[in-house]
């Protein structure tokens, strides 16, 4: 068995498979191969077409915007997230915060504690890191468009549980192996159900529910509800 890259100090030591791990590995093995092939094929086609359209249009406009004012700086923000089987990857977004926002957050202990307590998020109006333009692209989910690159590469799927930062793994307790058994997605049941309005520990139940019920038809439902949620700006901040 090949060794997987660790996702933290607790994952660096080899250990015996738990009953939960064995159960979810068996579930993955018995999951419809047809579904997985169709899912990946759709991911490649949709993300490929999206990038062909977005690169000469939206990406070009964004490149100009990020040359001026408080937005000046890198157009793309890359953040380390944990993917399938615990493999880390860099998620791509249009930058909605000031440069070195992560350092600014951690430099303020009180703000950082609030960030952790609020399920690793801060409301846009209370977050000094977010620019005015950043608030707009977050509200409209435009900041998420570069994730088509992640989807095309295979780090993410169009539909799946939302990829988390490493500290969030502890929220899943003994269910973390189940969460990491599936490729994370740009759209998911969590976003469709309320996005940032749903905090931990309820978010865990929502994400794991999708993994238990993943199917082609459920994915179509998730995509439709996500589109509705985007237009309604549900839980977007």
From TrEMBL:
Its main location: membrane. Residues 39-231 form the Bacterial sugar transferase domain. One of its GO terms (cellular component) is plasma membrane. Keywords: Cell membrane, Membrane, Transferase, Transmembrane, Transmembrane helix. The chain crosses the membrane at residues 44-68. The keyword Nucleus does not apply. Pfam families: Bac_transf. InterPro entries: Bact_transf. It is found in: Cell membrane. GO terms for molecular function: phosphotransferase activity, for other substituted phosphate groups. Belongs to the bacterial sugar transferase family. This is Sugar transferase. It comes from Loigolactobacillus coryniformis.
């Amino acid at each position: 068995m090949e060794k997987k890259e660790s996702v933290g100090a607790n994952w660096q030591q080899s250990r015996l498979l738990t009953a939960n791990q064995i159960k979810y590995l068996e579930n993955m093995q018995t999951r419809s191969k047809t579904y997985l092939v169709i899912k990946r094929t759709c991911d490649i086609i949709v993300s490929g077409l999206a990038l062909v359209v977005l690169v000469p249009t939206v990406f070009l406009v964004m490149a100009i915007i990020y040359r001026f004012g408080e937005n000046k700086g890198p157009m793309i923000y890359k953040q380390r997230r944990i993917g399938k089987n615990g493999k880390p990857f860099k998620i791509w977004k249009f930058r909605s915060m000031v440069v070195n926002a992560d350092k600014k957050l951690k430099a303020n202990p009180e703000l950082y504690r609030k960030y952790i307590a609020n399920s690793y998020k801060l409301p846009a109006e209370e977050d000094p890191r977010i620019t005015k333009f950043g608030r707009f692209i977050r509200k409209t989910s435009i900041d998420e468009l570069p994730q088509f690159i992640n989807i095309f590469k295979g780090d993410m799927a169009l539909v799946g549980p939302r990829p988390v930062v490493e500290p969030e793994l502890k929220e899943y307790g003994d269910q973390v192996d189940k969460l990491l058994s599936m490729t994370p997605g740009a759209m998911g049941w969590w976003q469709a159900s309320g996005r940032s309005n749903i905090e931990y520990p309820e978010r865990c139940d929502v994400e794991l529910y999708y993994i238990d019920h993943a199917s082609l038809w459920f994915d179509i439902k998730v995509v439709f509800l996500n589109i509705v949620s985007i237009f309604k700006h549900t839980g977007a901040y």
